[in-house]
């Protein structure tokens, strides 16, 4: 009986230590991503010029218009454009379903803000941040971008762009008032999304939807 109790105690200890080690590893990876992003994060007035602003997709409203998070990203990209920080805006999002078109919604909103159609480029296969950053290099031939997204998402986006040899600085797009519960959820979810980003870059190497090159600058 004592032998069984000892074995059980050892199993519990191993499980606890393994869980603690896993938690510490995840925390270290996320903290490392946050620290590496800090010197690459700027306000619109301070960010170094780049050829293109990369706007990452987010949710749409029921009527197909950009949600609050996505609207903030497009607005911030327009600010970069009108400030002369970028020449073009690459809007990358999900269009995997016929009735769900993030790039189209972003374009429509940007046009309403006065951004010329000729300076808007759409990426309809940016289903994930990984895909958007991969395709920025592989399809659109970009070596340098300013990434536009919310602060919770920006470190992962910068990490992924840099992983694909795209020099990236970032501008947070936290303009609106977000519900505290939503913002907390996004930050927590980003911990696990960051772990997945490390896995994809260093181990999994998934290949996004590709196609013929469409260089923005011939």
Question: How does this model look, in words?
Answer:
The protein is 49% helix and 12% strand. With 218 residues, it is of the alpha/beta class. Strands 3-2-1-4-5 form a five-stranded parallel sheet, sandwiched between helices. The mean pLDDT is 88.
Content of β-strand: 5-15%
Count of discrete domains: 1
CATH superfamily, called what?
Answer: HUPs
- Overall geometry comes to elongated
Number-wise, the strands total 5
Helix content: 40-55%
**C-alpha end-to-end distance:** 76 Å
Q: What about the largest sheet?
A: 5 strands, parallel
Structural category:
alpha/beta
CATH architectural category: 3-Layer(aba) Sandwich
Average predicted local confidence, pLDDT: 88
CATH topology: Rossmann fold
The Rg value, from CA coordinates, equals: 20 Å
Count, helices: 6
Query: What series of H and E elements makes up the topology?
Result: HEHEHEHEHEH
- The strand line-up of the biggest sheet is 3-2-1-4-5
Spans of at least 5 consecutive residues with low confidence = none
CATH class: Alpha Beta
């Amino acid at each position: 009986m004592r032998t069984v109790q000892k074995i059980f105690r050892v199993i519990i200890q191993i499980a606890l230590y393994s869980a603690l080690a896993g938690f510490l590893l995840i925390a270290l990876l996320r903290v490392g991503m946050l620290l590496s992003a800090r010197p690459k994060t700027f306000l619109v007035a301070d960010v170094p010029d780049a050829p293109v602003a990369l706007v990452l997709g987010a949710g749409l409203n029921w009527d197909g218009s950009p949600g609050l998070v996505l609207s903030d990203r497009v607005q911030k990209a327009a600010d970069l454009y009108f400030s002369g920080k970028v020449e073009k805006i690459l809007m990358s999002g999900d269009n995997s379903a016929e009735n769900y078109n993030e790039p189209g919604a972003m374009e429509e909103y940007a046009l309403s803000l006065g951004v010329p159609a000729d300076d808007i480029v759409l990426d309809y296969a940016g289903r994930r941040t990984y895909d958007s950053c991969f395709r920025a290099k592989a399809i659109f031939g970009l070596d340098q971008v300013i990434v536009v997204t919310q602060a919770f998402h920006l470190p992962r986006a910068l990490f992924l762009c840099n992983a694909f040899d795209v020099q990236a600085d970032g501008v947070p797009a936290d303009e609106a008032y977000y519900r505290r519960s939503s913002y907390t959820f996004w930050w927590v979810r980003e911990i696990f999304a960051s772990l997945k980003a490390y896995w994809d870059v260093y181990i999994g190497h998934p290949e996004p939807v590709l196609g013929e090159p469409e260089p923005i600058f011939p």
